[in-house]
């Protein structure tokens, strides 16, 4: 991409920040007019222009988890941009997000979205983030990211963040916990497939595959928050109650299936301990659907089918 193309894509203020050496983190000067306009903006930066922070305390990244994140990024993109310092023209250093940075490389990305920090903008960043989080049209993940940036980049405690945004500390904590959910669930929350209440219930599940399985169940079955909370409690106990099973049945009955199909669905569910669906056309042809949400779950299904 040429410099002129970059300017058109980023806008006058942000492109000026990228190219002006007075906005380097190593400079003692700050171009206030530029930094005020773009302090909360995101730019697409080439991975080759970003260097890791030599003072990063975390040096080991678990390979399997990193590959899982890379697969998720390849599918959904990067939900939370990395944060970098502007060290010079087309030269940046990571402040936070090294795991996302490494996973993006594994996913084959050449560019990543990044928040760009400039010289002497600490107070300005804090004010911009506090102002941004007060907006009414933010989704829960955007709010959580803003809280995390206040903590990571402005060196604030959760208590200090709660005071600055006029929220209870428990509220701040609940939003931050959302960022620990699998990326697919975070996307679902951003796209309003599930609500904050659903997400808070899912946080109480420790296993990622189980979280994803329940998430898909919420979307497919249109479960309420109360249904989800009950399903989470029963999952934690190691099984589903008859009440939970009954709550997942209406969609089967209203799909135009026969009583035989509904009975077959129940029998399949009893065998596979999973929601099953039988779809039949008017001519008698149809299909049996057994959804799975992980490689391990698929192998379990196959073992039960062919044993």
State the main characteristics.
307 residues; alpha/beta; Conserved hypothetical protein from pyrococcus furiosus pfu- 392566-001, ParB domain; two-stranded antiparallel sheet; 17 helices; 7 strands; 55% helix; disordered N terminus
How are the SSEs placed, and which strands pair?
Layout: H1 3-10, H2 12-19, H3 32-38, E1 42-46, E2 50-51, H4 63-76, E3 82-88, E4 91-96, H5 98-106, E5 111-117, H6 122-133, H7 140-154, H8 158-164, H9 169-178, H10 183-190, H11 196-203, H12 208-221, H13 225-237, H14 242-247, H15 250-253, H16 259-272, E6 277-280, E7 286-289, H17 295-306
Parallel strand pairs: 2-4, 3-5
Antiparallel strand pairs: 1-5, 3-4, 6-7
Describe, in plain words, how this protein is organized in 3D.
- By secondary structure, this protein is an alpha/beta fold.
- Among the domains are: 1-120, Conserved hypothetical protein from pyrococcus furiosus pfu- 392566-001, ParB domain, CATH 3.90.1530.30; 249-307, no CATH class.
- The chain has 17 helices and seven strands.
- The chain has helices at 3-10, 12-19, 32-38, 63-76, 98-106, 122-133, 140-154, 158-164, 169-178, 183-190, 196-203, 208-221, 225-237, 242-247, 250-253, 259-272, 295-306; strands at 42-46, 50-51, 82-88, 91-96, 111-117, 277-280, 286-289.
- Strands 1-5-3-4-2 form a five-stranded mixed beta sheet, covered by helices on one side. Strands 6-7 form a two-stranded antiparallel ribbon.
- A hairpin with a 2-residue loop joins strand 3 (82-88) and strand 4 (91-96).
- Helix 6 runs antiparallel to helix 7, helix 8 crosses helix 9 and helix 11 packs parallel to helix 13.
- The longest helix is centred in the middle third of the chain and has 15 residues, at 140-154.
- The radius of gyration is 24 Å and the shape is elongated.
- It starts with a helix and ends with a helix.
- Residues 1-9, 28-39 and 240-256 have low confidence and may be disordered.
């Amino acid at each position: 991409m040429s410099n002129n193309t970059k300017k058109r894509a980023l806008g006058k203020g942000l492109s000026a920040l990228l190219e002006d050496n007075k906005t380097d983190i190593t400079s003692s000067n700050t171009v206030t007019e530029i930094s005020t306009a773009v302090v909360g903006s995101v730019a697409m930066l080439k991975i080759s222009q970003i260097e890791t922070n030599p003072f990063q305390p975390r040096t080991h990244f678990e390979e399997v988890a990193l590959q899982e994140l890379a697969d998720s990024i390849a599918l959904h993109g990067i939900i939370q941009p990395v944060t970098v310092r502007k060290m010079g023209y087309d030269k940046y250093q990571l402040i936070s997000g090294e795991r996302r940075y490494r996973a993006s490389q594994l996913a084959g990305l050449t560019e990543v979205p990044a928040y760009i920090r400039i010289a002497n903008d600490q107070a300005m960043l804090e004010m911009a983030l506090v102002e941004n989080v007060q907006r009414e049209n933010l989704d829960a993940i955007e709010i959580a990211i803003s809280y995390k940036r206040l903590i990571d980049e402005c060196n604030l405690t959760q208590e200090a963040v709660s005071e600055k945004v006029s929220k209870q500390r428990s509220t701040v904590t609940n939003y931050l916990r959302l960022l620990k959910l699998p990326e697919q669930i975070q996307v679902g929350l951003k796209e309003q497939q599930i609500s904050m209440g659903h997400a808070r219930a899912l946080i109480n599940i420790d296993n990622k595959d189980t979280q994803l399985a329940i998430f898909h169940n919420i979307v497919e079955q249109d479960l309420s928050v109360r249904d989800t909370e009950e399903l989470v409690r029963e999952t934690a106990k190691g099984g589903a109650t008859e009440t939970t099973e009954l709550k997942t049945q209406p969609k089967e009955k209203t799909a135009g299936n026969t009583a035989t199909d509904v009975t077959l669905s129940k029998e399949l569910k009893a065998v596979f301990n999973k929601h099953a669906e039988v779809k039949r056309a008017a001519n008698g042809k149809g299909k049996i659907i057994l959804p799975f949400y992980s490689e391990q779950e698929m192998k379990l299904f196959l073992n039960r089918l062919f044993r």
